[in-house]
Write a structure and sequence with these properties.
The chain is an alpha/beta fold. It has seven helices and seven strands.
C-alpha cells in the first residue's frame, strides 16, 4: 500500500511539474503553425520551393530547377528502404508512375549516408531502374521537414502541391491529376 502511494505521489509531482500538460492530454486538433502566404518561399503546400542540388546513386548531379524545366512536376519520396517504404514505392511504381510520364519521380535515400551505400541499398532492394537521390547530410530531409514516407510534389512553377506522408496513393494521384 505504501509503495502505491509513493508511485502516485511521484506521478502527481511529475504532472504538476509539466506546465500546460492539459493541452497534451486533450489536444484540440487545431493546426497552430502560422498560415502560409501563397507564393512565399518555403516547403509547405502553396509555397515556392527553394532550389537545391543533389546527387543520385550514380554520382550524377541534379538541380530542382533543371528537373522542373522539363517536367510537369517532381515527386520526392523519402525512403529508408524498410518494408513500409518498399510497399509505398512499389505502389507508386505500379499505380502512379506509368500514368504520369511527364512527372519526374525520385526516391530520396536519407539514411545510408553515402552514394556507394545508397547504390547498394537501391540494388539490393530491387530498385535498379528507379531514380534515387542521395541525401548524404539529410539537407533535403530537413528542408522539407520530412519523415519516413514523406511525399512531396512540386509543380513546374516550383510551387509545393503536396508535402505529407504517403498513405494509399489516393492523395498523390489527386494532386497529380490536378496539375495543369
Amino acid at each position: 500500500m505504501c509503495f502505491a502511494r509513493v508511485i502516485a505521489a511521484g506521478a502527481l509531482l511529475m504532472l504538476v511539474g509539466c506546465q500546460e500538460i492539459g493541452d497534451d492530454l486533450s489536444p484540440s486538433g487545431a493546426d497552430r503553425r502560422p498560415d502560409v502566404v501563397a507564393g512565399s518561399m518555403g516547403t509547405r503546400v502553396d509555397q515556392q520551393s527553394p532550389d537545391f542540388a543533389v546527387q543520385d546513386t550514380l554520382g550524377n548531379s541534379y538541380a530542382l530547377s533543371t528537373e522542373l524545366a522539363t517536367a510537369d512536376a517532381v515527386v520526392l519520396y523519402f525512403t529508408m528502404w524498410c518494408p513500409i517504404c518498399d510497399s509505398h514505392a512499389s505502389h507508386m511504381r505500379s499505380a502512379n508512375i506509368p500514368d504520369f510520364p511527364q512527372v519526374n519521380f525520385f526516391l530520396v535515400d536519407y539514411v545510408t549516408g553515402s552514394i556507394t551505400a545508397s547504390r547498394s541499398a537501391q540494388l539490393s532492394n530491387g530498385y535498379a531502374s528507379s531514380s534515387v537521390w542521395v541525401d548524404v547530410d539529410q539537407s533535403l530531409f530537413d528542408l522539407y521537414q520530412a519523415s519516413m514516407g514523406t511525399t512531396v510534389v512540386i509543380d513546374s512553377t516550383g510551387i509545393v502541391k503536396m508535402n505529407e506522408d504517403y498513405k494509399d496513393g489516393v492523395k498523390l494521384r489527386a494532386v497529380l491529376d490536378a496539375l495543369p
